[in-house]
């Protein structure tokens, strides 16, 4: 019985929602292990569209256990709001089908505010990250700074006040420095106690729940958010999110051992997009970028921002295959390339007169690399809705085969439209 980790192999928005939904139908347990409500996963189940940010994709299917692992940063207000929206759509979520790890760090309003203050200040100096302004970075800072309020603290009203004091000593110093009002102890206590009753019923010892389920032979799906190039260590630092988005985090971020992971599936878009600031070697700002953006409907689920678009970058995905241990990819949005006469693929970079086959780690070098392209012939027939290789134009098959060769990983799933069934299955990750 295989447990599967799904990660994005580019800068996020690779189309994880559909693939995770497809996989979650086959899983017993679905686990989020990093990030927070900065993620945006769109699921279409039985004709209904669900937009999830914080909750694992399993919540929209009956009979699945959904888990928010300790590696997530958890905004209680976003949680309550998302639960409310799902209830309005007829989805019933109870503590029997959703568990939140007791040791999960909280995102509070002061984190969201700090995220915004910093981004505003950085806009003036041209150094902003382009975050989702959800407080993700500041919440992770408090976690590693050992001053976070965690879910379990909501149940311990004796020690909570001293934890709040410790948090505020830090935050109020920052807020004063940035020219903003301080936050009072009472305001934070009120914020926490007002949501405690809605959160605590879901709290559990998640590491044990997962251990029991694993021993019982259940299938566990670990649902990554964002993408490898946004990883705090392996991404385009500092233009990254504040968590490890790579597959290894599935273990630490939920409390299972690395041996519990059998298969890593990398979701990979047939071209490249990114939201926010930062290097993007194959970005196309002209006609090609507009074509991809319009055809691919490249707008963020969470912030509505227009995504930057460009050609497929095999250097980046090959690196993602290595750092995640990706066994197979789910290739998405191939149909967006339909109708192009020529398609370019980046196979290497030129950096300061040399040719390299990796993304350098330094910010300066990442900004200077120039893509080396191969040009492939496009195809005029549509790939949209294809459900077998025979239905694909020959040039499209060639494109896919070439990508496999360049990145060093096979296609396990090929998605040919947002519809669930428009998927060509080569390898079922749970059966591998
Ligand atoms: P943060 O995660 O809000 O701190 O944002 C940091 C960077 O990650 C920004 O460039 C965001 O646009 C990007 N980011 C965060 N979440 C997502 C996502 O789910 N998809 C794509 N980009 C994201």
Summarize the structure.
With about 425 residues, the protein is an alpha/beta fold. Helix content is about 30%, strand content about 20%. It comes from Manganibacter manganicus.
What are the distinct ligands in this entry? inosinic acid
Q: Distance between termini?
A: 9 Å
Q: Overall mean pLDDT score?
A: 95
**What helical percentage do the residues reach?**
25-40%
CATH architecture of the largest domain: Alpha-Beta Complex
Describe this structure in words.
It is a single chain. The chain is an alpha/beta fold and 432 residues long. The protein has three domains: 4-101 and 202-260, Adenylosuccinate Synthetase, subunit A, domain 1 (Adenylosuccinate Synthetase, Chain A, domain 1, 3-Layer(aba) Sandwich); 105-199, Adenylosuccinate Synthetase, subunit A, domain 2 (Orthogonal Bundle), CATH 1.10.300.10; 268-431, Alpha-Beta Complex (Adenylosuccinate Synthetase, Chain A, domain 3), CATH 3.90.170. It has helices at 16-26, 76-88, 109-125, 136-144, 160-177, 185-199, 206-215, 249-252, 287-295, 314-324, 363-368, 394-407, and strands at 4-8, 29-32, 41-45, 48-52, 65-68, 73-74, 98-101, 105-106, 203-204, 220-223, 263-269, 272-274, 308-310, 312-313, 328-332, 342-351, 354-356, 370-377, 411-415, 423-425. The strands form five sheets. The protein has a ten-stranded mixed sheet, with helices on both faces. Strands 14, 16, 17 and 18 form a four-stranded mixed sheet that branches. The chain has a two-stranded antiparallel ribbon with strand order 3-4. Helix 2 (76-88) runs parallel beside helix 6 (185-199). Bound molecules: inosinic acid. Inosinic acid binds at residues 12-13, 38-40, 129-132, 134, 136-137, 225-226, 230, 239, 241-242, 275-276. It catalyses: IMP + L-aspartate + GTP = N(6)-(1,2-dicarboxyethyl)-AMP + GDP + phosphate + 2 H(+).
């Amino acid at each position: 019985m295989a447990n599967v980790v799904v990660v994005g192999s580019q800068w996020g928005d690779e189309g994880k929602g559909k693939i995770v939904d497809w996989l979650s139908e086959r899983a017993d347990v679905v686990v989020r292990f990093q990030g927070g409500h900065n993620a945006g996963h769109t699921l279409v189940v039985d004709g209904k569209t669900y937009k999830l940010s914080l909750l694992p994709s399993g919540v929209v299917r009956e009979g699945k256990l959904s888990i928010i692992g300790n590696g997530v940063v958890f905004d209680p207000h976003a949680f309550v709001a998302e639960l409310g929206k799902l209830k309005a759509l007829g989805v019933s979520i109870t503590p029997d089908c959703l568990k939140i790890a007791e040791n999960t760090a909280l995102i509070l309003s002061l984190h969201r505010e700090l995220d915004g203050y910093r981004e505003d200040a950085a806009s003036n100096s041209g150094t902003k990250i382009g975050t989702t302004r959800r407080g993700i970075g500041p919440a992770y800072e408090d976690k590693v700074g050992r001053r976070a309020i965690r879910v379990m603290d909501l149940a311990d009203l004796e020690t909570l006040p001293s934890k709040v004091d410790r948090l505020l000593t830090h935050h109020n110093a920052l807020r004063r420095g940035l020219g903003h009002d301080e936050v009072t102890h009472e305001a934070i206590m009120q914020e926490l106690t007002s949501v405690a009753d809605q959160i605590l019923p879901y709290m559990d010892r998640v590491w044990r729940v997962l251990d029991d389920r694993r021993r019982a032979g259940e299938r566990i799906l670990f649902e990554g958010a964002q993408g490898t190039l946004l990883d705090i260590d392996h991404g385009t630092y500092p233009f990254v999110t504040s968590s490890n988005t790579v597959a290894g985090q599935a273990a630490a971020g939920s409390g299972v051992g690395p041996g519990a992971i059998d298969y890593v599936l990398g979701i990979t878009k047939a071209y490249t997009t990114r939201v926010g600031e930062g290097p993007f070697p194959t970005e196309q700002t002209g006609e090609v970028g507009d074509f991809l953006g319009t055809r691919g409907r490249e707008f963020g689920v969470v912030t509505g921002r227009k995504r930057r678009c460009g050609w497929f970058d095999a250097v980046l995905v090959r690196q993602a295959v290595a750092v995640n241990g990706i066994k197979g990819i789910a290739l998405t949005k191939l149909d967006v390339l339909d109708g192009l006469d020529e398609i370019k693929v980046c196979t290497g970079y030129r950096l300061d007169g040399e040719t390299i086959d990796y993304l350098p780690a330094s910010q300066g070098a990442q900004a200077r690399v120039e893509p080396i392209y191969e040009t492939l012939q496009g195809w005029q027939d549509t790939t949209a809705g294809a459900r077998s290789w025979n239905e694909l134009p020959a040039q499209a098959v060639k494109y896919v085969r070439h990508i496999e060769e360049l990145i060093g990983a096979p296609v396990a799933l090929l998605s040919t439209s947002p519809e669930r069934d428009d998927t060509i299955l080569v390898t079922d990750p749970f059966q591998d």
